[in-house]
Specification:
Layout lengths: L1 E9 L7 H13 L4 E17 L2 E13 L1 H12 L4 E9 L8 H11 L30
Antiparallel strand pairs: 1-3, 1-4, 2-3
Length: 141
């Protein structure tokens, strides 16, 4: 079996159906003996550019291990589901189980006091080395 990373985005009007969709896709993968290594629901996010006059969409990330027929069935399910605006399936060399950068960002925001991105700013860099004072060159008058 091979490893894959899958991201799909769902129409915002169908956001309440995302848990049922994820469960259906989970069963497609696990029923024939596949495994899901990472499953993240990134929630509703702004799109970089509009897709079918939609400006926001619901993102879901899955890292799975499955065989070729299961992957074909999963891709077929994405293509013929009107709620899925786009999907991307990328082959991976190994199973990824660590949180994605998107989830790390969310955790840092939620754990910070006040919960704003401004409070999670990086600490100031060490002071720069200031060169020795240079005497100004006289300007002819």
């Amino acid at each position: 079996m091979r490893h894959y990373e899958i991201v799909f985005i769902v129409h915002p009007d169908q956001s309440e159906q995302v848990p049922a969709m994820v469960e259906r896709y989970r069963l497609m993968v696990t029923a024939p003996g596949g495994r899901i290594h990472r499953l993240e629901d990134w929630g509703r996010r702004q799109l970089t550019y509009p897709i079918a006059k939609v400006h926001k969409a619901h993102y879901v990330l899955m890292n799975i291990e499955c065989d070729a027929p299961t992957l074909t069935e999963l891709e077929h399910a994405f293509k013929f589901n009107d709620a899925v605006l786009r999907h991307l399936i990328v082959a991976a060399s190994e199973a990824v189980v660590t949180p994605s950068p998107m989830m790390k960002e969310e955790k840092s925001r939620s754990l910070s006091p006040g919960g704003t991105a401004a409070t999670t700013a990086t600490p100031p860099a060490s002071p720069a080395v200031v060169p020795a004072a240079v005497e100004p060159t006289p300007v002819p008058t």
